[in-house]
Prior knowledge:
Helix content: 25-40%
Structural class: alpha+beta
CATH class of the domain at 2-122: Alpha Beta
Distance between the termini: 24 Å
Number of helices: 5
CATH architecture of the domain at 2-122: 3-Layer(aba) Sandwich
Amino acid sequence: MLSDECIYLRRLEQTDLDRTWAWVNDPAVYLKIGVQAPVSRSAQLQWFERLDRSAERLVLAICLNEGDVHVGNVSLDSFESRHRTARLSIFIGDGAHRGRSVGSRALALLAGYAFDFLNLHRIWCKTTAGDARIARFYEQLGFQREGVLRQHEFVDGRYVDKVLYGLLRGELRRVPPTP
């Protein structure tokens, strides 16, 4: 288990599926992470069963130490073993915990694990262009803007650009302890 003084990350469990199903069907989440919505409960279960058997994707539940509450998910996938890279994804499903450093902490824990334990050299992610808050989130942790995929995704009735961010081993800025 990966943890700091405020949160811990653990493997996603089948008991988490009702909560994650509600989150991925919430426009505040699915419009940000690019999931095809709506997602049925049976599709969610099939996704989890594939995930549970896969060594190609690591999905962790983000949980608060206080109250043992699951508030979001963070993952690594698209592993390239020759190049030692992987794609990172994150969402805080519980809106009450967005903007409270939970995501920064989770991302820092997972990035540390990716570099120190999995021996990755680079992790990357993509976000919707024009979202200054998300750009700031990644840049404060040391991610560098690497490029734009023009009109890469069809979201909410229009094509949107996606911005690529990358983080190399040694560039991660650790989250300061809570005062």
